[in-house]
Amino acid sequence: MFIGHLAVGLAAKRAAPRASLGAYVMASVFLDLLWPLFLIAGVERVVIAPGITSFSPFDFVSYPWSHSLGMAAFWALVFGWAHYAIRRDRATAKMLGLVVFSHWVLDWITHRPDLQLLPGVPFRTGLSLWSSIPGTIAVETAMFLAAAWWYESATEPLDAAGRWGWYSLVGAWLIAYAASIAATPKPGQETALAYGSLSTWLFIPWAAWTDRHRVFQ
User: Where are the domains of the chain?
Assistant: First the structure.
């Protein structure tokens, strides 16, 4: 998932609004922010294998440090603790930790059985929503649009930046999602994939900036 993860962050922002939307966006995709770093470092491995699922051409050969169940729980605790250490807001820290962990749950629904429970444990699991392109698009898009509407309906722009910054952010997310569907990466482009995935970090300051120009009603 991509925009499905973002949907959780948007919904959580309305539920616990004291943290920035940038923090919630970062929490929702935190495992995917770590993943390219581990790929570049050679700790994890992905292979582009067109046809391995209907929706995604990626064979996640090894990614237990970013995407196993146990490590997802660990990163959720780290993220929540870091927020609490800075802000001393226990309730929001818990919400951010839950958003981080939700990433594994959504991946478990979409991925083929390639998610490990712990590093070193060979058993893998996944419910394979990616075996259906229409099903994947319908679920993710519905989640995202509902969450975007829920956030927008609870806030109002303070100025033009709050209005057009928000619309441009939503549009950029939808364009990025459509591009990921239309793109056909070729085997051997795994290094480019890893470095290209670092662009996800750019959405965090964009979301934080937009959120500063909106206020809850």
Answer: 3-211
